[in-house]
Amino acid sequence: MFRHTLLLFFLALIWSASFLAIKIGVETIPPLTLTAGRVLLAAVVVVAFAFYRRVRLPREPRVWVYCLLLAIFGNVLPFTLINWGELHVDSGAAAILMAVMPMATIVLAHFFTVGDRMSTGKVAGVIIGFAGVVVLVGPEAVKGLGGDLWRQLAISGAAMCYSLAVILTRNMPASPLIARSAGVLIASTLIILPVALVVEQPWTLVPSTDGMLAMVYLGLFPTALATVLLFHLVQHRGPSFVAYSNYLIPVFAVLWGVTFLGEKLSAQAGAALVVILCGMVITQIRRRG
Question: What is the model's pTM?
Answer without folding.
Answer: 0.81
